[in-house]
Amino acid sequence: MKHKKAKKYGMVIDLDKCTGCGSCMVACMAENNVPFRKDESNKLLSITWLRVYKLTNGKPFPNTDICYLPRPCMHCEGQHEGHPPCVSVCPAVATDYNIETGIVSQIYTRCFGCRYCMASCPYHARYFNWWDPVWPDGMEKYLSPNVSPRMRGVVEKCSFCYHRYQLAKEKAFMEGRRELKEDEYQTACTQACPAGAITFGDLNNPNHAVHRMVKPDPKHHGRPTNPNAFRLLERLGTNPKVYYLSSREWVRRAGDNYLETEAKLKKTVHHS
Amino acid sequence: MKIGRRSFLSFLLGGAAGTALSPLPWKLMDDSSIWTQMWPWTPVPEDGEASYVNSSCTLCPGGCGISVRKIDDRAVKIEGMNGHPVNNGGLCILGLSGLQLLYGPTRVKTPLKRVGKRGQGRWEKISWKDAVSQVAETLGDLREKGQSHTVGFISDSDRGTVPRLFERFLAVYGSPNLMRTSSIIDSYELTLYLMQGAQALPGFDFENANFILSFGSGILDGWGSPVRMFRANSTWCNTGGKVIQIEPRLSNTAAKSDKWIPINPGTEAALALGIAHVIIKESLYDAEFINYYSEGFEDWKHFVLDEYGPDSIATLTGIDSTTIIALARSFARASKPLAICGRGQGTTPGSLNECMAVHALNALVGNINKKGGIFAVAEPDYINWPPVEMDAAAAAGMQKDRLDGAGGKKYPFSRYLLNRLPQALNSGEPYPLNALFVAGTNPLYQMADNKAVKKAFDKVPFVVSFSSYMDETAQNADLILPNHTYLERYQDIPTPAGMPKPVIGLSRPVVEPLYHTKHTGDVIILLAKAMGGNIADAFAWNNYDECLKQTLGYKWQVMVEKGFWSYPDFFVQTHEESFDTVSGKFEFAPKETGLPQEFKPVGIDGDKTDYPLLLIPYDSIRLANGVIGDPPFVMKTVDDTVLKGTDVFIEINPKTAGEHGLREGQLAMLRTPVGKARVKVNLFDGIMPGIVALPRGLGHTAFDDYLAGKGINFNELMGPVEDSVSGLDAAWGIRVKLAKA
After folding, report:
1. Which of A252, B218, B286, B561 has the largest CB neighbor count within 10 A?
2. DSSP strand E in B453-546: where?
3. Which of residues 64-123 of A touch B (CB under 8 A)?
4. A48 shares contact with chain B (CB less than 8 Å)
5. Cβ separation of B685 and A56 shorter than 8 Å?
């Protein structure tokens, strides 16, 4: 049997096109049976696998600027492939890195809610179920059978709509194919984005749009070579598989969260 | 053996060590996590056969195509329809949460008759038969007494088969009082009528335009057909098209535009004329269009050159004159420029002069009925029913003046003036209303100064709502005749807002009706049949579905298969034949009104000494402010700088806040001449000093606990201001004072 090259599914979000409309957030909630509560204005408790952040450049009127930044799970590769921050700390193997797809899983029935992963995730991409989910009478009818509703006491996060991958795989197998086409497996947010700002695909496949857009450098864990592309908190070495594009410099800088005194600090703190 | 301190301690320690080494703690921890997770109330969604049904979304006038995923007979997800001319796969936040409306707790499940006082929420379930015969009896009595004209009907639209059924019913029954929810479309219709002689809707060829001059239109905040606008914006990103956004607040549209130009609110018309001044002065206009296809340019030109020089406009608008001149030049020199208006989502009509001044800019650059420009799109003429036969009672009723004064002496050009209804109801002039029907709209929430609107409605002895949901208007009705939701019914959707070509969408049942609801079209047909005589004769169909199928004729089959009908033989009229004015040309100063598009400030409520600041509403795509409120999913996306708990935030410039001694997150009291509200302060650099902005779409008193009681309804704080030419609501804000709470 011919050796198959592993996939590395990733996402590119064009922040010049993103309008902050929130369609991706709701498409995700509807696809993944995400629960909701009466008051969702405490954002630390509000479960949003994909959250759109509002960034500002901090300048006074009239030079103020806003940029929206959608944040799914980054599906970090880690310092060495397969070692994202959350996977390394999980005592229950409830979250794992799939070498075949590069997707970081979350297995709710294994999770016992210690929340180490939440503490270790630098992107706040993980959420804890403090309450059992409750749907108003009759509303549980719209729940999708492809994603299990979670229960109190477990952590959940974006799965890159892994069930869609499984369904697409099954369909391809039924048709006698072993490889998926680019458009066969797309996440719910990618599909819903009215601005076409999200692109999803295999970063290892040079024919896929995501690869062409960021030109990942395989020697440096996929660091983008497109000058407008960046990853969040690049210097932490988490090597995320979600890339952002922006033509605005202040946005790219905000992506790496520099403090004003950062340039000086970097020189003094750098040891190795 | 004696149990001493020593042996006791070693027993405890030994026991602890032994237990720790045994699998017991791990087993218990594992078990407890399993026990606390395996509650029977965590739902396990049933699996089944997956399928997709294509339909159209009618939650806003955007008319997107949707593809609904089903598992057996349950709808589990709404997605955008690929290949649809409006949205091609994408979908907005509200459309995506539609299933929460279908399966949600706010559905009205059966006809309800009020038993307590109005608004008390005490209802009695009645059968459809009783409900229809009760309405028929009331209407019959009124007609017998010669008061058929005292029946009014408010609809969200006047286009498509269902609103046309209302119109037909009122005509044969004998009442002129059909009213439509107003929006910027009203102003555009009047503008096209007065300047081009066209009875048409505005269509914008955004996809081919490359320089958009937007006078506050929330292109990315829900203006027009929202998903189409998002897509157009991405096209401009790819092709280098420019967007210039003129508004006092850094909205999402302004943030994404190529240039944001803050302006003193309410002076947009003056800026448009100032830009016209520069274009004319520097001869940058399209001479061919002006010379051959326009009328009255010379007079208008002198007027604009005399009155609207960049220096005086700069003082008025707060934009410096070099910016105005540069803007005029780049607009006129662009290959496909397009100027648009309608603040925010375009929910208020605004002043007619403003709309005409902006439209005149399009004429100056000659982009009327041209690729990348603005089109007058005639209504698709697929509804060809035989004319109704009116008896003497109907004819007499139809002769009466309309209650809202539209088409009367004062406002001869306007067709509907819903904003004038409350004052007519309150004064009882020209006559009181005895019955009011409300369909597809929620005036007690949506109309300016909604408390006054409620008082006015209280004067009407019989109010009937057709709402599928328990909204504010339904709550205060006497009878609710619940319609199927949009996912349970057939309906035609004529040309979505702003489309440059006519297209008819089809909404169709995705699931069987869940409850004991009835299609409003069916209710009208049943009502006509119950009334008998020539009213029944005018409705020859057995039911609404039959009526729709017959009306669409050969188009039906195509629409069922494709989900929409686009006119293959549609072509753009040449300039020679597209203007139906007296002169046969585009009229800069329409003779009918005798008015040039001068700038007349809209008289905003409140005086400057008592109310030093200006309050403006802002629209967000994440806050539905039409007939539907935010479903729970959409509420989840509302930022905590917009709503926290039940407190809404105002946006205010840090400088202005400092002058009022207000800090971030502090509570403040907002007072306008119309109302007051407790708000929290959000310091935002992206807003002009001296202005306070508050979101639309909150402060519901109806719908579910996820929405009701949160924030303030903007309409409680602002009243309508009548436009002197159109009679439409021209208010864009109100004066306000702010103090620490």
Report:
1. B218
2. 462-465, 479-480, 491-494, 503-507
3. 64-68, 108-109, 111-113
4. yes
5. yes
Alpha-helical (H) ranges within B145-286 are: 161-173, 184-196, 226-239, 252-256, 268-281
CATH architecture of B112-183+390-487+515-555: 3-Layer(aba) Sandwich (3.40)
A48, A143, A154 ranked by CB distance to B76: nearest:
A143
Inter-chain touch B685–A59, beta carbons under 8 Å: yes
- Using the Cβ of B645 and the Cβ atoms of chain A, whether some distance falls under 8 Å is answered with yes
Q: Cα–Cα distance between A134 and B705 in angstroms, integer?
A: 13
In this prediction, residue A263 has a pLDDT band, given cuts at 50, 70 and 90, of low
Mean pLDDT computed over every residue of chain B = 93
A39 lies within 8 A of chain B by CB? yes
Mean pLDDT of B590-617: 80
How far CA B266 is from CA of A19, A88, A198, B216, in Å, comes to 26, 58, 37, 10
Domain ranges of chain A: 9-269
Mutate: best of B487, B637, B698, partner A, most A CBs <10 A: B637
B128-144 vs B520-531: helix axis angle to the nearest 10? 50
A272 pLDDT higher than 50: no
Contact status, residue B213 vs residue B361, Cβ threshold 8 Å: yes
Phi, psi of B453 (to 5 degrees): -65, -40
Give the homologous superfamily in CATH for domain B201-377: Dimethylsulfoxide Reductase, domain 2 (3.40.228.10)
Q: Do B220 and A33 touch (CB under 8 A)?
A: no
Write out chain B residues lying below 8 Å of A137, CB-based. 105
Q: Are strands B667-671 and B112-114 parallel, antiparallel or unpaired?
A: unpaired
| Mean predicted confidence (pLDDT) in B275-286 | 96
> pTM value?
0.93
B79 in contact with A at a CB cutoff of 8 Å? Answer: yes
**pLDDT reported for residue A269:** 47
Q: How far is Cα B298 from Cα B395, in angstroms, rounded to an integer?
A: 46
Q: Please report, for chain B, the start and end positions of each structural domain, with discontinuous segments joined by +.
A: 112-183+390-487+515-555, 201-377, 613-740
Q: What is the pLDDT of residues A155-211, one digit of tens each?
A: 999 999 999 999 999 999 999 999 999 999 999 999 999 999 999 999 999 999 999
> Is the Cβ pair A194, B91 closer than 8 Å?
yes
Mean pLDDT of chain A, nearest integer: 92
Angle, to 10 degrees, between the axis of helix B544-552 and the axis of helix B520-531? 110
Residues 6+ apart with CB under 8 A from B3: none
| In the predicted structure, residue A1 carries a pLDDT above the cut 70 | no
Distance CA A243, CA B569 (A): 45
Considering the four listed CATH numbers 3.30.70.20, 3.40.50.300, 3.40.50.720, 1.25.40.20, the one that applies to the domain covering A9-269 is 3.30.70.20
Percentage of residues of chain B with pLDDT beyond 90: 84
Size of interface A-B (CB pairs under 8 A): 206
Of B129-143, B264-278, B318-332, B601-615, the poorest mean pLDDT is in: B601-615
Rounded Cα gap, residues B477 and B438, in angstroms:
9
Distant-in-sequence, close-in-space partners of B250: CB < 8 Å, separation ≥ 6:
A64, A65, A66, B260, B262, B684, B685, B686, B687
Q: Model confidence over B464-488: pLDDT tens digits?
A: 999 999 999 999 999 999 999 999 9
Among all residues of chain A, which has the CA nearest to that of B46?
A145
Nearest to B493 by CA among B180, B110, B64, B179: B64
- From chain A, the residues in CB contact with B96 under 8 A are 23, 26-27, 30, 192
Q: Which of A26, A60, A67 sits opposite B96 (nearest CB)?
A: A26
Beta-bridge partner residues of B465: B438, B480
Query: Which amino acid belongs to residue B59?
Result: L
Q: Domain B613-740: which topology?
A: Barwin-like endoglucanases (2.40.40)
